[in-house]
Amino acid sequence: MKRNTVVRAMHDVGLAAWFGGSLMGAVGLNGASGVVSDRNERLRVANSGWMRWKPVNALGIGLHLVGAVGLLGANSSRVAHQKGVGASTAVKGALTIAALAATAYSGALGTKLENAGDVPAESGVKPEKETPQDVAKAQQQLRVMQWVIPAVTGTLLVLTSLHGEQQRPGEVLRGVIRKTFTK
Q1: Does the residue 89 lie in any domain?
Q2: Which of 103, 130, 104, 126 shows the shortest CA–CA distance to 43?
Q3: 121, part of any domain
Q4: How many domains does the chain have?
Q5: Domain membership of residue 37 as a residue range
Q6: What ranges make up the beta strands (E) of the chain?
Q7: Cα separation, 116 vs 139, whole angstroms
Q8: Collapsed DSSP state (helix, strand, coil) of residue 124
Q9: Mean pLDDT of successive 10-residue stretches along the chain, which has 183 residues
Q10: Dihedral (C-alpha) 75, 79, 80, 83: value to the nearest 10 degrees?
Q11: Is residue 44 in some structural domain?
């Protein structure tokens, strides 16, 4: 078997940044915005942090996608001939699309909050009574989405571990034999 260190590193490091950044943002950044003393600055502080993270996140996602395509090409024979690899690859593809959609939707919500300016808020994702209704709705949606992204990308990390296990020589042999004789 040929080594695919560069594309594997791109895949894994990109996914780690996507997962880790979204989880840190949900726990750290959005949570910390609630301790800003001026309630009219809380949303701006959270948005400022997310805007600083945005290019790094985009780079991580891009690295992950390039690495994923590279690994798919390098392992296309296993995907086609080893039982279980095609199914887990399809699930990874669907989850990647879901993570991209959740990230894009969260970005759109974040832009809406950024454009709101200085409005009263309990935190970056928690409105208070005086928060304008449209801003409060976006915050409530983002409060859910902040957990969707790390949940989906975390699941992708688990499936990446499964793919690593499926590459063990004994697993490849068993998978090819099972697929050959169960057609």
Answers
A1: yes
A2: 126
A3: yes
A4: 1
A5: 5-178
A6: none
A7: 11
A8: coil
A9: 87 97 96 96 96 97 97 89 87 97 97 95 96 98 97 96 72 65 71
A10: 130
A11: yes
